Amino acid sequence: MAESWVRLWSGMTTDPKWQTIARKSGQPRCLVIALFAHLMMIANDAPVRGDIIGLIVEDAASALDCDEDQIASIIDAMHGRVIADGRLSGWE
Asked: What are the pLDDT digits (tens) for 35-76?
């Protein structure tokens, strides 16, 4: 299978929304950004590109070497900001 690419935007790591999500979730901004990158990979490989319904919190926590509670709190804080209706809201 050929490699599939996902593009990041210039300034992605300094986007102010990550600090807001970090503050709301009580998690470090670096973990918020890492989880978003992980979600982009899931969305890219989903049958309907952009969907993150296939997210398994336990697997994400293992992939990012953190606790499931940390992932869940970030996902909760991402709703309405970068996640809407089981999709990354800016995918298109």
From this structure: 999 999 999 999 999 999 989 999 999 999 999 999 999 999
Q: What would you report as the CA-atom Rg of the chain, rounded to the nearest whole angstrom?
A: 13
What are the b/e assignments for 32-58, b being 16+ CB within 10 Å? bbbbbebbbebbeebeeebbbeebeee
- Decide: 26 and 73 in contact? Cβ < 8 Å: yes
Alpha helix positions (H), the chain: 16-25, 29-45, 57-63, 68-78
Q: Whole-angstrom Cα distance, residue 7 to residue 5?
A: 7
Amino acid found at 79: H
Q: What local confidence, expressed as pLDDT, does residue 8 receive?
A: 81
